[in-house]
TrEMBL record, chain A:
This is Anti-sigma factor. It comes from the Bacteria. It comes from Blastomonas marina.
UniProtKB/TrEMBL annotation, chain B:
Belongs to the sigma-70 factor family. ECF subfamily. Gene3D superfamilies: 1.10.1740.10, Winged helix-like DNA-binding domain superfamily/Winged helix DNA-binding domain. It comes from the Bacteria. One of its GO terms (cellular component) is DNA-directed RNA polymerase complex. This is DNA-directed RNA polymerase sigma-70 factor. InterPro entries: PhyR_sigma2 (IPR053866), RNA_pol_sigma-70-like (IPR039425), RNA_pol_sigma-70_dom (IPR014284), RNA_pol_sigma70_r4_t2 (IPR013249), RNA_pol_sigma_r2 (IPR013325), RNA_pol_sigma_r3/r4-like (IPR013324), WH-like_DNA-bd_sf (IPR036388). It comes from Blastomonas marina. Residues 4-54 form the PhyR sigma2 domain. Residues 94-146 form the RNA polymerase sigma factor 70 region 4 type domain. Keywords: DNA-directed RNA polymerase, Sigma factor, Transcription, Transcription regulation.
Length: 233, 154
């Protein structure tokens, strides 16, 4: 037989068995040109493995490991108290929301947004409002300017979203006329002396969100459904 | 999941061709896997499932970036790599990386899954969602192209 290029590659990768393997092995044994092809395949495999192997030894960044690490005790308690029967199911949800958020809190500068004079105090607009409208915590990019930490419904049944952005970090709830800032983290890393120094704005925000959340955070599906309704019930 | 993260990250870097794009891809994969963990069937291989999620995200990303007219980091811009990703992202782009980036996506993922990640053809075909024969021939075409680009003197 004359082996096909596919068979030669599969033979080199040890992916053939039974009669096919024997037949290909016999053909290769009889033909030095085929032997060279097998050797070339194996050499290429070795070269690629050697080239990619060092990538395994890189230290894992926190952005990748944080979602997989055990969540904060405080969050566990909240969950356990709110939805005891669902504890098991909600573990990953809180874990992956809180993990990266806490990691991101390190260098967060927070200022109060000043809307135009026509805006009601605390009304949000622009990029932040559109991020609140559109972004889902399950699918947002790790390096997004605005990150949603948690979406939930408050005691009035309004949808609220805890978020962190380069200039502001807090909780906004969707009122009839738009997103209304409910809580604001205060704190700044960059030596802005007029702001209180607060090391963990994001965990403060999350703690506040937990106080306000009626039934725990929304999971990915509920969040997507809420967005589909325009964050209005 | 933590155990397979280094491998997953290696595959992401190979697909994206750039360490920080790879880490973004890896993070999206982890988040999507966690959000969908109820869909993973106990007793099946977690790693294969996550590789499948990753390559699906990658395909979506590639399409949407193409629509927006954006490109990834230029494969020939080896000397600039590391500037944006910090020191740990400093992985030298050499002729192998450049050759890999010139492969069509379907061939590149076949090469990565089998020759780098060490999957059997059958497992790799399941991850990609194609027949084993198709995977085998993509692999052959990818290998031939690589050998031409980086030379047979491997």
């Amino acid at each position: 037989m004359t082996p096909t290029p596919e068979q030669i590659a599969a033979f080199a990768d040890d992916q053939l068995d039974g009669e096919e393997r024997d037949a290909v092995a016999t053909a290769i044994a009889a033909d030095p040109a085929l032997q060279r092809q097998v050797e070339a395949h194996r050499a290429l495999s070795a070269k690629l493995s050697a080239h990619f192997a060092p990538l395994m030894d890189r230290e894992l960044p926190e952005t990748l490991t944080a979602p997989l690490e055990p969540r904060e005790a405080e969050v566990v308690d909240f969950d356990a108290a709110r939805e005891r029967k669902e504890t098991r199911r909600t573990i990953p949800r809180w874990g992956w929301i809180a993990g990266p958020a806490l990691a991101a809190s390190l260098a967060l500068a927070v200022v109060l947004p000043r809307g135009g004079s026509d805006d009601a105090p605390g009304a949000l607009s622009g990029e932040l409002a559109s991020a609140l409208d559109s972004q889902l915590s399950a699918t947002q990019r790790a390096d997004a300017d605005t990150r949603i930490l948690l979406s939930f419904a408050n005691a009035e049944g309004d949808y609220c979203r805890a978020f962190t952005a380069p200039e502001v970090s807090g909780i906004a709830c969707r009122e009839a006329d738009g997103w209304q800032l409910e809580r604001l983290a205060t704190g700044s890393e960059a030596g802005a002396s007029e702001y209180r120094q607060a090391g963990s704005d994001v965990s403060d925000i999350l703690a506040a969100a937990q106080e306000m959340a009626r039934g725990g955070g929304l999971d990915a599906e509920a969040e997507a459904a809420a967005r589909a309704k325009g964050w209005r019930d | 999941m933590l155990e397979i993260l280094p491998r997953l990250r290696r595959f992401a870097t190979g697909l994206a061709g750039h360490p920080s794009d790879g880490d973004d891809l890896c993070q999206m994969t982890v988040e999507r896997a966690l959000a969908n963990r109820a869909k993973w069937q106990e007793g099946t291989r977690l790693d294969s499932w996550m590789y499948r999620i990753m390559r699906n995200i990658w395909i979506d990303e590639t399409r949407s970036r193409a629509r927006r007219g954006q490109t990834f980091v230029d494969p020939d811009a080896g000397e600039r790599v590391g500037g944006e990703g910090g020191q740990e992202a400093r992985v030298e782009l050499n002729n192998i990386d450049r050759a890999m980036q010139k492969l069509p996506d379907d061939q590149r993922e076949a090469v990565l899954l089998v020759m780098v990640e060490g999957y059997a053809y059958k497992e790799a075909a399941e991850i990609v969602g194609c027949p084993v024969g198709t995977l085998n021939s993509r692999l052959v075409r990818g290998r031939d192209a690589l050998m031409q680009m980086i030379g047979d003197a491997a």
